[in-house]
What does this fold into?
Amino acid sequence: MAWDFRIAKPGRLFLKTPFGSLFLVSGFALLVFGFCYPTHFLVADELAYFEQARAFSAGQTCAIDYPPGTAILATFFIWFGGNQAVFWSSFTCWLAGTWALALTLHKTGKPVGWALYPWFFIPGLVFIRTLMSDMPSFALATVFGLLCTALSPNRKVLFSAGLVGGLGLLFRETNLLWVLPFALGIIFRQKTAWPWFWLGLLIGSLPRLIAGWALHQNPVFLRDPGIPFSWSALPGNLAFYALALSVILPGGLWFLWKSKNPYRIEIATCAGLFLLIYGCYDYDALAKSGYKGILLQARFMLPLLPFFALSAAWTPLKFHRKTAVVFWVLACLLFASIQIAGRLYNAEQQKNTTALLKIPFGLQISFSPDESPKYLNALYGPSTILDGHALSDRMLQSCNIWYAHLISRSESADREAKAKAALSAFYARFAGWDIDQIDQVVLADGTRLYVWRAQKKDNDEEKR
It folds into this structure.
């Protein structure tokens, strides 16, 4: 009797459907991310979003300099899963964007596999693990691309596209850069229905205006980044972003150049605006954060990824079935590698958290107030960290014993200079005190934690 394998055919048919393989990849990503789930913040700015989301979840207001969309989105995850659930926010946006991109490709008759093209952009895979505005912006840009390029341009679709574009402002002001080229293009392409897009854009912008008024008493409040825009920064930044969009995003600019996408003018204009605006943004992440700055600066290009993927799908380039399988496998391996590396890095960060949690509550002073909250915050329970640089002399003298710490980084000259200045500030503040170093932790990336116990000298000892 011969074995009958016909029962396996439905599974094979499932894999051959446009979204079958993507469903398996998404399930794989969910398992990997769950296993490697983030435990620490990677960027100091995450704490501002986190604290605002905590306030929103408790029915309170909390004004920070950043647009409130990221915190509002994180609030829903805190409601359903507590503080630790905030990291699901970016991962959910990543998968939502991937599926929206896949639907766009399917609707336009292109291989759905190109939906995984953004998965080769390493900064994106890293920032999945953060509570930042990058992933919501990526997801909204992808849904916007679906509505503008793949669906029938009727009134409902164009209104929805405008609505999504307006909501993008709730997360980041520069999201307008991927909205405007399509907003103008729709006027020329759609002779009668284009006002619906602009109506949607106006309504979608209202939450940002309302939030600005409610939180800052200014509907058009814009954050001052403290970093100027300068034409002199353009050559160096253009070189960096050209590298990021050609190597870190393999072949990105080549696909943009060769694309036959019917919306290539709008897509190219989006890319040009991003390169111009961020090119003039005099932010040198490499000087501040060393090799980590590559990820920090390249992340600004994340909202462009869906448009580059659409460009790639419309290039005169064909993959054989085996090549497509290799493409999918490599995307999964890269995703898993980055998440495993992230878990290992979080384990290193936990060493600092464990050391800081040993310090008596309420007696802890930080001389690295920008770094310390990444290791000690509400994710791990109630904590109080006083800023050693801002602590008044009266407060300092009110206690006989303090525990002070300093977290130093060495990946750039700027970080080394800050650590040296902070160390000098510590010894200056506790001049005349008995100081004992009670702990030191060194992480694999060179980050060092110093913990001291400072005690007042008694009067007899001071007289001697």
Q: What stands out?
A: Residues 321-357 form the longest helix (37 residues). Confidence is low (pLDDT under 50) at residues 1-8. The CA atoms of residues 82 and 287 lie 36 Å apart. The first strand starts at residue 364 and ends at 366.
